Amino acid sequence: ARRGGVLLPLLVLPLATPVLIFGAAAGDAAATGLTPRPHLLLLLAVLCASVPMCLAAAGAALRNAAE
């Protein structure tokens, strides 16, 4: 159980990095008067790709917990 506490942040960090980068780029673009639309569309693409993966992972976790 202790090992899982160390492993989880290492697995989640690469997934959170693109959100941080594109979110900061969208904020920077809006602050400088440029359109943040391309950055927000990339964030939307990340969201659309991650929702099915999260649903599959949640299903697998529930099946594993039921055993």
Explain what this protein looks like in three dimensions.
- This protein has one domain.
- 90% of the residues lie in helices and 0% in strands.
- The chain is built from 2 helices and no strands.
- Helix 1 (2-31) runs antiparallel to helix 2.
- The protein is elongated and about 55 Å long.
- The model has no long low-confidence stretch (mean pLDDT 90).
Number of domains: 1
Content of β-strand: under 5%
DSSP, total strands:
0
Low-confidence segments, given as residue ranges, are none
Report the span from N to C terminus.
Answer: 17 Å
Mean of pLDDT:
90
Order of helices and strands: HH
- What kind of sheet is the major sheet? none
Q: State the helical fraction.
A: over 70%
Shape: elongated
Tell me the radius of gyration.
Answer: 16 Å
What is the secondary structure topology, with strand pairs?
Elements: H1 2-31, H2 37-66
Helix pairs in contact: 1-2
Protein traits:
mainly alpha; 67 residues
Task: Give the gist of this structure.
By secondary structure, the chain is mainly alpha-helical.
